[in-house]
Amino acid sequence: MARNAVQFQKGMSLSAFLERYGTEEQCHAALVAWRWPEGFVCPRCGGRAHSFCAPRRLFQCSACQRQTSVRAGTVFQASKLPLRTWFLAMVLLAQSKNDIAALELMRQLGVNYDTAWLLKQKLLGAMLAHNAERPLSGLIQVDDAYLGGQATRQPGDKRGRGAPNKFPFLAAVATRDGRPRAIHLRPVPGFTKAAIEDYAARNLAAGSAVVSDGLSGFNGFAEAGFAHDPIKTGSGKRPSEPALTWVNTVLGNIKAAITGTCRAVRHHHAGRYLAGFEWRFNHRSNLAEILPRLARTALGQHPTPLRSFLTAEVAG
Ligand SMILES: [Zn+2]
Question: Which intervals hold domain ISXO2-like transposase (predicted)?
């Protein structure tokens, strides 16, 4: 049987991981190389000349004397965890097929639950910010979806206005040559025309063309200036239309994964959980490079204030 080249990638084995990133020194050297590929740059003055204080792992700028660590100003800041714990968390989170529960992270990392939970939220938060800067382009299939509700749309569902106890999100899949290329899983306030128009204006590249079912709110794509092909499907049924195959496949997988790892996702956290699925899907094609890619994602984002993660009693 032909095997899917993406699914059967090797990724990084535990022994390869330990060989490359088993010590704090190795992790520090890798992070420095990923943050400053051309060599140290002072975050205050841009100077390159520096000295390095090895015991405290601090860089001191020769021009302005500013002392900086490789963690400063990134997601890794203000954490007492060793970098090797962060690295293991990153590889577990990035390489997991769908999601890794905080409880599982706790066991694998040897930290307490709150620490594992917060670490996961910080990495998901970095993925969320990274995703937000990446518009979709080309031919795009979209569908409406909900977290916390039933998986299939029922007759009489309050589509467009938001049903109670559900968290609405838009699923979009950009395809090329009939294959999925990149996805968006974005929370929306509802499936009104205004909400869709707002999503489209912010998140789709000019010239993109959208295929959807006939939900009236999807007319917001045309309002935002995009070519839009609404496919009429039977009322109350999930479309089996070939033009929407990928968005339905991706959605099905994500719903199965979310129910598999999270007993409940609170509204407050849903955007970050979705961001994790989106990031993993969009980086799935090169598992061997997934750790440096997640590290660069985390290095590229500012530290998240703790208060944005409070109300942390979610299971996931
Ligand atoms: Zn400086």
Answer: 135-282
Question: Ligand 1 centroid vs 301 CA: distance in angstroms?
Answer: 21
Q: Are residues 158 and 244 in the same domain?
A: yes
What average pLDDT does range 125-133 have in this prediction? 94
Same domain, 191 and 269: yes
For residue 298, tell me if it sits in a domain: no
Q: For 16-23, what is the mean pLDDT?
A: 93
Return d(Cα 277, Cα 128) in angstroms, integer.
10
Q: What confidence score (pLDDT) does residue 315 get?
A: 39
What is the CA(84)–ligand 1 centre distance, in A?
28
- pLDDT, one tens digit per residue, over 236-277 is 445 456 778 888 888 788 777 766 655 566 667 888 989 999
Domain assignment present for residue 315? The answer is: no
Report CA(72)–ligand 1 centroid distance (Å).
14
Distance 36 CA to ligand 1 centre (A): 14
Ligand 1 centre distance from Cα of residue 17 (Å): 34
Query: What is the reported pLDDT for 7?
Result: 65
149 and 280, same structural domain?
yes
Residues around ion ligand 1, judged by CB within 5 A, are 42, 44-45, 47, 61, 63-64, 66
